[in-house]
Automatic annotation (TrEMBL):
InterPro entries: Aldolase_TIM (IPR013785), Alpha-glycosidase_related (IPR050985), GH (IPR017853). It comes from the Bacteria. This is Alpha-galactosidase. It comes from Dyadobacter beijingensis.
């Protein structure tokens, strides 16, 4: 669809949504620009728009003042949207005095920064009664004049954000999709935080939740709206008949509202713009420079590790630990993570000595192989509450006072788990003691924290203390576990799944999870996930590319891990009891385990890859990794792009180049050259190599099929050589 058609469609969309009572008077114009993009907010009418300065196109428009759907003292459900009473600008800061008809008054503070707008503070002072907030909205308005089409919606208001398309990283998983036209959603709730399945969102496993932001726009420009602090409500992008808004679900009509006649929201929302969706996401991320510290206040771990997860075998009910440890030794993996079900019951933190009678001896055996140990742990689930010393008052309860249960997909008849309430002092003590015991007994180098997205939504149950509700609940649970673990070993690596910049202080390593949920389009889905994971690269958070379950599909996924940095896997360590994994599959894993980048802070270089738009999803072809301006890793794909010149390189087949120091791949002390198919490569390298070693599962030997002439190194690999070669280490 052409841009003219996109713009026409946007302007032609339903006009049945009318503004609430409008403010009168003159107010300062509030504008943010980036290149030819202009984001402007008319405070008098509460109408904002993102437009293109030269093309005249409008990519997004809608309202921004907050509104509430609430229950009053008579248990009636009412709606009130803020109206501007006055506004004063002081340089790049704006103070807006508000009134919510029927509720009270308040104040909104807005900042205009280099990365966009920031709703830095919202206060509300209730008048006659304390409302029970059911939902809070950004981007919703009353329907007063009627609409041409009435969507299925039981509220007297509707979302009013209009754009040609939406982009939410990993909004849908099997198969993965992040870009949607406005009419693709229908009536949809896309959970942006930790409440995916329980909010009715299409199941998407762990990665990349929570994101806590969403993009809106077209190919002329994008607006990203995201949380500035961890919300006390469950945050979603709500779509009704093409139009969107942000919804924060509270359900204080079911759960006790906070005491007092004032409410305060710090850093409610941030707004950023750019010519692409990922570019606007990157501007949103850039507004969080302060998240370079972990939960204990120290610097984040700066080195990546190669991780092998036992889930590849344990999902098949094959539980022996020592054969996997032998495999790890062969593959030169650094950490073996013991996944579910290593515990006596889920969440206990105690090993299952019936399933693993030699558990502690097996741990010693792993370490004798030169491999460190990691453990999997749930964030909020608990199976056997009595054994763990927890009772009803320590759990999330439903509206009937019965403990809520949850599972990964919220199947009503599936095996389910109780959910701990962080409000309980006994719950907090249990989590701390459990974590400290694990750290002292097992001494893990990695703790993999899972199922933060699998807790009940506010419609089902909620913490007793309002301070820990909404997205804050999972954050508080995870933060507590992280602090306990790092109190024993500050260097323990905390593995999580969410890509929100607000989760960076809690996370040393983000994993793309296993790719079971990418279903039948693994390679395209993993490429898309890699694009979104790279948003974290500037924070020094290590990124694990993980794997699928099928060795035959591994190479396409592993290519992306070369750039992401940290190779992880949930592959089986055998095909069957009678069949070992063929060497041609092992070799690529071995090469990346040996030679992956150890640093965690980097920037992507896209070359002929693209990050997606309204014409198609993200697609990775050739792309690279730069560190302080130096190109330290590069992936070259084939066949459709063979013969192109990327960094003055010619090639056939598929290749990865990884610098073994912090210098560029064209001038390192050593560079790894890894074939992912038979072919040849010729690239500039300043000096003639002193030595080139060919490495494989069977060992290493001097390479013979290479030539250096006039500052270029050429290496060729036949089909037979490819099956038996992990890669080449070029030393200068």
């Amino acid at each position: 669809m052409t841009r003219i058609c996109q713009t026409f469609l946007l302007l032609f969309v339903l006009n049945g949504i009318s503004k609430d009572a409008r403010a009168t008077g003159t107010f300062p114009a509030w504008t943010h620009t980036r290149g030819d993009l202009v984001l402007k907010w008319d405070l008098a009418t509460d109408k904002a728009a993102l437009s293109h300065r030269t093309k005249g196109s409008v990519m997004w428009q809608g309202s921004l003042l907050p509104s509430f759907w609430y229950e009053n003292a008579k248990k009636q459900k009412k709606y009130s949207k803020a109206v501007v009473q006055s506004a004063a600008a002081d340089g790049e800061k704006l103070t807006v005095q508000l009134q919510w008809p029927g509720l009270g008054k308040g104040r909104l503070r807005v900042e205009n920064t280099a990365t966009g707008w920031r709703f830095s503070e919202l206060t509300a002072e209730w008048a006659a009664f304390i409302p029970k907030i059911i939902e809070m909205y950004l981007g919703a308005s009353m329907v007063v004049n009627g609409a041409n089409v009435q969507p299925t919606w039981d509220r007297p208001f509707l979302p009013d954000w209009q754009s040609f398309g939406y982009c939410v990283p990993g909004a849908k998983a099997g198969t993965v999709q992040s870009y949607f036209r406005s009419w693709d959603f229908g009536h949809t709730t896309i959970a942006l935080g930790n409440f995916g399945p329980s909010m009715g969102t299409p199941y998407g496993a762990a990665f990349p939740r929570p994101v806590l932001f969403a993009g809106m726009g077209s190919d002329d420009g994008w607006l990203t709206v995201g949380a500035g602090s961890v919300p006390e409500g469950a945050m979603s992008l709500k779509i009704q008949s093409t139009r969107g808004c942000l919804q924060f679900l509270y359900r204080e009509d079911l759960w006790r509202a906070p005491n007092g006649k004032t409410r305060l929201w710090k850093d409610l929302a941030r707004f950023s713009i750019d010519t692409t969706a990922r570019g606007s996401f990157a501007q949103y991320y850039a507004s969080f420079p302060e998240v370079a510290k972990n939960a204990s206040g120290g610097a984040l771990r700066r080195q990546t590790v190669s991780i092998w997860n036992t889930w590849g075998m344990w999902r098949l009910k094959k539980y022996p630990i020592r054969p996997i440890a032998d495999f790890m030794e062969q593959m030169h993996n650094e950490v073996m993570v013991l996944d579910d079900p290593w515990e006596s019951s889920q969440g206990s933190g105690v090993p299952d000595l019936k399933r693993f009678p030699d558990f502690y001896n097996d741990i010693s055996y792993i370490r004798e192989k030169g491999v460190e140990v990691g453990v999997w742990e749930t964030i909020g689930w608990i199976k056997d509450t009595a054994v763990c010393g927890l009772g009803k008052r320590d759990l999330i309860l439903d509206k009937n006072g019965k403990p809520c249960m949850a599972n990964w997909n919220f199947d009503p008849q599936g095996d389910a788990y109780y959910c701990m309430d962080f409000s309980s002092e006994r719950t907090r003590k249990f989590l701390w003691d459990r974590t400290v015991r694990i750290m002292k007994d097992i001494r893990p180098q990695v703790i993999k924290l899972d199922f933060g997205y699998g807790l009940p939504s506010p419609d089902m149950g909620s913490p007793r203390d309002p301070a820990w509700r909404g997205e804050r609940h999972t954050f508080a649970l995870m933060q507590h576990i992280v602090k306990a673990a790092k109190s024993v070993d500050p260097d323990v690596v905390i593995m999580g799944y969410g890509i929100s910049p607000l989760w960076v202080p809690l996370t040393d390593l983000v994993s793309l999870d296993d790719q079971g949920d990418l279903w039948f389009d693994l390679h395209r889905g993993h490429q898309e996930w890699s694009v979104w994971a790279s948003l974290l690269a500037g924070y020094g958070v290590a990124i694990s590319g993980s794997s699928c379950y099928d060795w035959a599909l591994d190479d396409g996924i592993l290519l992306n891990s070369v750039i992401l940095g940290s190779p992880g896997a949930v592959l089986p360590s055998e095909i069957s009891a009678q069949e070992r994994v063929p060497p041609q599959w092992l070799n690529r894993r071995l090469a990346v385990n040996l030679w992956h980048r150890r640093t965690a802070k980097w920037e992507p270089r896209w070359y002929n890859s693209h990050t997606g738009n309204m014409q198609g999803p993200p697609q990775l072809r050739c792309w690279g990794r730069t560190e302080e301006g130096a190109l330290t890793a590069l992936v070259l794909r084939e066949p459709e792009y063979a013969g192109q010149t990327i960094e003055n390189i010619t090639w056939t087949g598929k290749w990865a180049l990884i610098s073994q120091d912090n210098a560029s791949i064209s001038n390192p002390n050593a560079v790894a050259v890894i074939p992912f198919a038979a072919g040849q490569i010729s690239f500039p390298i300043q000096n003639k190599p002193k030595q080139i070693l060919r490495r494989g599962i069977a060992g290493e030997a001097p390479a013979d099929r290479w030539e250096w002439r006039d500052g270029r190194l050429s290496i060729a690999v036949s089909e037979e050589e490819f099956r038996n070669t992990a890669g080449f280490l070029v030393k200068q």
